[in-house]
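To whoever is on call:

I kicked off a structure prediction for a single chain this morning and the downstream step that reads the tokens threw a length-mismatch warning. I double-checked the sequence; it's 87 residues and nothing unusual in it as far as I can see. Pasting both halves so you can look.
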Amino acid sequence: MFSDRSTFDDALVDYQSARDEHVMPMYEMTFDFAQLDQPPPPEMQQVLGAVARSQDAMDDFVSVQAGTLPIPEFFSPDNVGRIMAGT
């Protein structure tokens, strides 16, 4: 990203845009979990309950929290279906 000949300010704007796009799903998930005045929606409660019953799903959820597994990948319909099925 910094290898082209853009100005420093332009490079920082580009970097911030790319960074924000990359981390926005984590920010939104963290913000949603931080809403302590209300429980998660029932669908999320069901998914988290199923995660708690599977070591593989728990490991993947920790990877989501660490930022090493993309949130959209973890919450994809196929993966959530696998978690809910306990496979």
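Update from on-call: the warning came from a stale cache, not from the record. Cleared it. Sanity check on the structure: The two ends are 40 Å apart (CA to CA).
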